[in-house]
Specification:
Layout: H1 2-9, E1 13-17, H2 21-32, E2 36-40, E3 55-56, E4 61-62, H3 63-76, E5 80-83, E6 86-94, E7 97-104, E8 127-129, E9 138-140, E10 142-143, E11 155-156, H4 163-167, H5 174-182, H6 186-196, H7 200-206, H8 210-214, H9 226-236, E12 253-257, H10 261-272, E13 276-281, H11 289-292, H12 301-314, E14 317-320, H13 330-336, E15 339-342, H14 345-355, E16 381-383, H15 386-389, H16 394-413, H17 437-443, H18 459-466, H19 480-484, E17 497-503, E18 505-508, E19 513-514, E20 531-533, H20 534-541, E21 560-567, H21 583-597, E22 602-607, H22 617-625, E23 629-642, E24 645-652, E25 657-663, E26 665-670, E27 672-673, H23 678-685, E28 711-713, H24 723-741
Parallel strand pairs: 1-2, 1-18, 2-5, 12-13, 12-15, 13-14, 15-16, 18-28, 20-26, 21-22, 21-26, 22-23
Antiparallel strand pairs: 3-4, 6-7, 7-17, 8-9, 10-11, 19-27, 23-24, 24-25
Length: about 750
């Protein structure tokens, strides 16, 4: 009976974490035996590092030709549930029955509709470094990692709210309209500005532009001239008459007391919501501080008049020279209107509190209102702007008006006034700059609110300045891709999914990370653009790479190339005492490819030792030596620039003599190190690291078994190895996993 109970506990499904060559091989082996496989990959496409390679050693077979059919087979297999762009967040249970929680990140593209037609790509104004090309090439914010990607579906790179948008009290999409300007899409840029700013002309001239102080570009030199770019749009772009009428008319009426920035914004927003709005202003003209606080040479009157002309077109009733307490009573307002918003300014707070019984003020004489909802102590009466906060900037006053409009709308509809209000007003972006205030003060150009304003930017200046944007938020949410997507596959509101899986066995095939050569600063990686590491060189050689297979450094073919072995391997200084096993041979392969692509190049390989241990490796090594590629046993000490060329300095360890080699290109044979994410996975599974920080095997000679029963290792997550060894280990892991799954296949009645 106990035996039958154990059989019932086994779930005949497997989980494989990581969809590189090891994960795919293991998944296909298990699926072919009739078991269900859940293959989880954190990237948008499967394939892993092998998909980045140009050729494989020692046969020089095309890497894509080998792996692409396997990728397609994996995606199409009926027993494989492919979960790309997903991460494991929790694992519980034991061998036979693991409970696994997976977070499926949103692509913001409906994969059931996306046809990979690429119509969205040319419309996207945001260009970012391509991670698949190791940053050597560029891609758009909506992208597929590489042409043979599986699944061949687009993904939108949305990294979060950029600092410029987050710090704007009105959350104007600055990155969005700046990106559109950089592409010359001026009408689209102005339309995007109007989505969040009710009066873009006014703010273009008198906004304090807090966005520029938080601009990520300030870390490089000076911030993007965000406000000047907005002014360029307002001054020079001819647009069709925007449609300001509400989509639905409501019967409720709202009174706005005060025609300054806060009152105007509240009136604008409430009317857009469909409410019948009446705006009361004690003076003979609207604008408040806008008209009597700024000289016309700083805020031209025609700009104010143009922006405020929309109020009449929207159907907002405006009553000028209407002063509460004199020719207008609160009793009458409360009787005729469903809600009242007080936007009387800092100078009007005292007078209004004297006219309205029960309205409380603070010690500064400002109206007391709830900071989240702007409710006063009187039912149906809200207050915002300078009359509540004290003197502030124009954009902050407008944000108060918007906050008041949201609260009034919720109050009338009987909704919770506080729920979900955390995102209003100024926010902190996850991409915020950590530059000290002293440096910001040096680089930020503060607005001068009295000095006459300059002539503004020309078209050429605007486009060039917009191109300086770092696009730190990824996708700019400009909406251009959605406009041009015929299948309507773009879904900005897509949310992450939490998926729960129940499996009997787990195979870890998370792969490796290339060693970061910046940890060896003597070689100048990250300082000199013509110092590359191994995978970057692979992308240069690849026909699908950023240069279409042509080896170009800053637009030129290098004539003198130096390869340096064992960067990040067999090195106690960086904590990697192990040999990475593949570096000697991929360097020989790359040297051969350089000889093939640049026949006249002078190629030198500086090696510590050559470990050509695999099948056909020694023969390939000898073949490369005969191609006029110089192998020199050496200990390189530094790479530096002299007279415009790189110089590799070191010691010839056979001759015992120092040397210097000039080079146009230096390629570092960077080793293999454990993935950063592996530490989290080890904690989930209660596993330990080996001495070289990869996953530790179970005691004994089996490199597949782990100390956690039911969990197996495959590929480079267990330790550095080449592709044939990886595939062999993956098949071994699949066989051991199937031995467990088979116990749950035929469950007793």
């Amino acid at each position: 009976m106990m035996k039958d109970d154990k059989l019932k506990e086994v779930i005949p499904e497997a989980l494989i974490i990581g969809a590189g060559i090891a994960g795919m091989q293991a998944a296909l082996d298990i699926a072919d035996k009739g078991f269900k496989v859940h293959l989880v990959e954190k990237d948008p496409s499967i394939g892993g590092h092998m998909a980045q390679l140009d050729k494989t050693f020692p046969t020089l077979d095309c890497s894509a030709c080998i792996i692409t059919p396997k990728m397609v087979d994996t995606a199409n297999h009926p027993n494989i549930n492919l979960l790309t762009y997903s991460e494991i967040i929790r694992i519980e249970g034991k061998a036979g029955h693991f409970k696994v929680t997976v977070r499926k990140k949103p692509r913001y593209v409906d994969v059931t509709k996306c046809t990979a037609c690429a119509d969205c790509v040319p419309q996207c104004p945001v260009t970012l470094p391509n991670e698949f090309d190791m940053g050597l090439g560029m891609r758009k914010a909506i992208y597929i990692p590489f042409p043979q990607a599986v699944p061949l579906k687009y993904t939108m790179d949305r990294r979060g709210t950029p600092p410029c948008t987050a710090t704007c009290p009105l959350h104007c999409n600055a990155q969005g309209y700046v990106a559109l300007i950089s592409q010359g899409k001026l009408k689209e840029a102005l339309a995007l500005v109007r989505e969040t700013l009710p009066f873009p002309g006014i703010l273009a001239y008198v906004c304090a532009h807090p966005c520029e102080r938080e601009c990520k570009r300030i870390e490089v030199d000076r911030p993007v001239s965000i406000c000047d770019l907005k002014r360029f749009l307002v001054d020079h772009v001819e647009e069709t008459e925007p449609d300001f009428l509400p989509s639905e008319e409501k019967s409720q009426k709202v009174a706005i007391i005060g025609g300054g920035p806060a009152g105007l914004t509240a009136a604008f927003d409430l009317r857009r919501m469909g409410y019948r709005v009446t705006l009361f202003e004690s003076r003979g003209e609207l604008g408040g501080l806008l008209t009597h606080g700024f000289p016309s040479y700083r805020l031209p009157r025609e700009v104010v008049e143009k922006d405020l002309s929309v109020l009449e077109k929207m159907g907002i009733e405006v009553r000028l020279n209407a002063e509460v307490g004199k020719n207008l009573s609160f009793e009458e307002l409360q009787k005729n209107f469903d809600a009242i918003f007080l936007a009387v300014g800092s100078t009007g707070a005292g007078a209004i509190s004297g006219s309205l019984k029960g309205l409380k003020t603070n010690r500064r004489g400002m109206i007391q209102a709830d900071p989240v909802t702007l409710e006063t102590g009187l039912k149906g009466i809200f207050a915002g702007g300078d009359g509540v906060t004290g003197p502030g900037t124009i954009v902050e006053s407008m944000a108060q008006g918007r906050k008041g409009a949201i609260s009034i709308d919720r109050s009338i509809r009987g909704e919770d006034l506080r729920l979900g209000r955390e995102s209003e007003g100024r926010q902190v972006s996850p991409m915020q700059s950590l530059l000290p205030d002293s440096k910001r003060d040096e680089r930020e150009i503060l607005p001068h609110m009295v000095k006459p304003i300059g002539p503004g930017l020309t078209l050429e200046e605007a486009i060039e300045d917009a191109k300086r944007c770092l696009n730190c938020g990824g996708c700019s949410d400009c909406g251009e891709c959605a406009r041009y997507c015929q299948p309507k596959a773009v879904v900005y509101g897509m949310k992450e999914e939490i998926i729960e899986l129940h499996v009997g066995a787990i195979i870890l095939s998370t792969g490796f990370d290339p060693f970061d050569p910046k940890l060896k600063p003597e070689f100048g990686y990250g300082v000199y653009p013509n110092v590359l590491h191994g995978i970057e060189m692979e992308r240069l050689c690849s026909a699908s790479g950023p240069t279409k297979g042509e080896i170009l450094i800053q637009g030129k073919k290098p004539k003198e190339i130096v390869f340096i072995h064992c960067v990040g391997s067999r090195d106690k200084a960086v904590g990697n005492e192990y040999c990475s096993r593949v570096c000697c041979m991929y360097t020989a392969k790359q040297a051969h490819l350089v000889r093939d692509k640049i026949p006249g190049a002078h190629i030198t390989v500086l090696y510590m030792d050559v470990r050509a241990f695999g099948k056909g490796f020694e023969e390939f090594y000898e073949r490369v030596q005969k191609e006029e590629i110089i192998y020199r046993r050496a200990n390189p000490s530094e790479v530096y620039r002299r007279n415009g060329k790189l110089v590799v300095r070191g010691e010839d360890t056979l001759l015992g003599e120092p040397f210097e080699l000039e080079a146009d290109l230096v390629v570092l044979a960077s080793g293999l190190v454990p993935r950063v994410e592996d530490d989290t996975m080890k904690k989930m599974l209660g596993m330990e690291s080996s001495s070289d920080r990869f996953y530790a095997e179970a005691p004994g000679l089996d490199p597949i078994l782990t100390s956690t029963k039911g969990v197996f290792l495959a590929g480079c997550c267990q330790g550095p190895k080449d592709i044939p060894d990886t595939v062999a280990q993956a098949s071994g892991a699949a066989a051991l996993a199937c031995a467990i799954l088979a116990k749950g296949r035929n469950k007793p009645e």
